TrEMBL record:
<feature type="region of interest" description="Disordered">
    <location>
        <begin position="1"/>
        <end position="21"/>
    </location>
</feature>
<dbReference type="GO" id="GO:0004497">
    <property type="term" value="F:monooxygenase activity"/>
</dbReference>
<dbReference type="GO" id="GO:0008270">
    <property type="term" value="F:zinc ion binding"/>
</dbReference>
<dbReference type="InterPro" id="IPR001279">
    <property type="entry name" value="Metallo-B-lactamas"/>
</dbReference>
<dbReference type="InterPro" id="IPR024884">
    <property type="entry name" value="NAPE-PLD"/>
</dbReference>
<dbReference type="GO" id="GO:0005737">
    <property type="term" value="C:cytoplasm"/>
</dbReference>
<keyword id="KW-0503">Monooxygenase</keyword>
<feature type="domain" description="Metallo-beta-lactamase">
    <location>
        <begin position="87"/>
        <end position="281"/>
    </location>
</feature>
<dbReference type="InterPro" id="IPR036866">
    <property type="entry name" value="RibonucZ/Hydroxyglut_hydro"/>
</dbReference>
<feature type="compositionally biased region" description="Basic residues">
    <location>
        <begin position="1"/>
        <end position="10"/>
    </location>
</feature>
<keyword id="KW-0560">Oxidoreductase</keyword>
<dbReference type="Pfam" id="PF12706">
    <property type="entry name" value="Lactamase_B_2"/>
</dbReference>
<dbReference type="GO" id="GO:0070290">
    <property type="term" value="F:N-acylphosphatidylethanolamine-specific phospholipase D activity"/>
</dbReference>
<protein>
    <submittedName>
        <fullName>CMP-N-acetylneuraminate monooxygenase</fullName>
    </submittedName>
</protein>
Length: 326
């Protein structure tokens, strides 16, 4: 009889890898924090000039970037082109990270609307939080019959109900392969839930995306944990890591679910990524820190940890980076 994986909680649902940081805070305080973030009238930060490209520049960049390339749509949403394929990640593209026009509202628009997205060969969705699993964007996506959607355990029915014809769910370390593209569902240190009563009922994940020439890691949402050394041992090297660097305060709460910019560099070093592109910042106010401090801390951490400032990449929303030049 095969032993039950540790992350399958014996009490039901899922839990983080063994040795992950623990959340030591009263549940009542956590609930207050969540409702405060969902319900409060948020300040609108001052947007640095050039942070968001205009539509013409977005289109020009996608055309010039070609295949292989990555295009940042904002937050954790990317168009990845590799091995002649097109992959979409976590397409949160509408205004609110919450139900029924509630919750944090993005302060900059996505680079593309859902009905403007290219026809993707694969879409990966890391978990079911509203800023990653956007039901309104999924409903508007026009290529549901073509795109293979890959999700962690427990999310297949949610995606199928939005009209997608090809959906598979996978556990950590499982892989899907077709026509030279392999997507591996990998561990992450995070959580799941779209309300108070469904916490950790579905799995969360990161993803390895491999073709003959590129190996790309997409972090989804994650805190730091020792599990990344195991990912490195089993899946390295990665040419590029798309890693979350924002939404990290207050640390007593966020330390279990989101990495700081400094921890993001620790993560990409642990998995053996040659370069890292910071994401999950500059789009929507999920937590109280300055939303534009993360990039500076990310670059400084790369220097301080000997990773190399030139390897800590940042994009403007809508910008495309050709991987031929990476």
């Amino acid at each position: 009889m095969t032993a039950r994986p540790y992350h399958h909680n014996p009490k039901g649902g899922f839990r983080n890898p063994e040795g992950s940081p623990n959340l030591r805070i009263r549940k009542r305080r956590l609930i207050r924090f969540i409702y405060r973030q969902l319900g409060k009238k948020q300040r609108q930060p001052e947007i640095p000039e050039g942070h968001v490209l205009d539509r013409a520049a977005v289109d020009d960049g996608i055309l010039a970037g070609g295949n292989p390339s990555v295009t940042w749509l904002g937050h954790a949403a990317f168009i990845i082109r590799t091995g002649g394929k097109v992959i979409l990640t976590d397409p949160y593209l509408t205004d609110y990270a919450g139900p029924a026009r509630m919750g944090p509202k993005r302060y900059v628009p996505a680079a593309l609307k859902a009905d403007e997205l290219p026809r993707a060969d694969v879409m990966v969705i890391s978990h079911n939080h509203y800023d990653h699993l956007d039901a309104r964007a999924l409903a508007a996506y026009p290529h549901k019959d073509h795109t293979q959607v890959i999700v962690p355990l427990g999310l297949k029915s949610f995606i199928e109900k939005r009209g997608f014809a090809r959906v598979i769910e996978m556990d950590w370390w499982e892989s899907w392969t077709a026509d030279g593209l392999t997507v591996t569902t990998l561990p992450a240190v995070h959580s799941s839930g779209r309300g108070i009563h469904d916490q950790k009922k579905t799995l969360w994940a990161s993803f390895g995306i491999r073709t003959a020439k590129e190996n790309i890691w997409f972090s989804g949402d994650t805190a730091y944990g020792e599990i990344f050394h195991e990912i490195g041992a089993r899946q390295a090297p990665f040419d590029l890591a798309l890693v979350g660097i924002g939404a990290y305060e207050p640390r007593e709460i966020m330390k279990m679910v989101h990495a700081t910019p400094e921890e993001a560099i620790q993560i990409v070093r642990a998995i053996g990524a040659k370069q890292a592109l910071g994401m999950h910042w500059g789009t929507v106010l999920l937590t109280p820190e300055d939303p534009f401090e993360a990039p500076d801390r990310f670059r400084r951490a790369a220097i301080d940890q000997g990773y190399g400032e030139e390897n800590a990449l940042l994009l403007r929303i809508g910008e495309t980076r050709s991987l031929k030049a990476a």
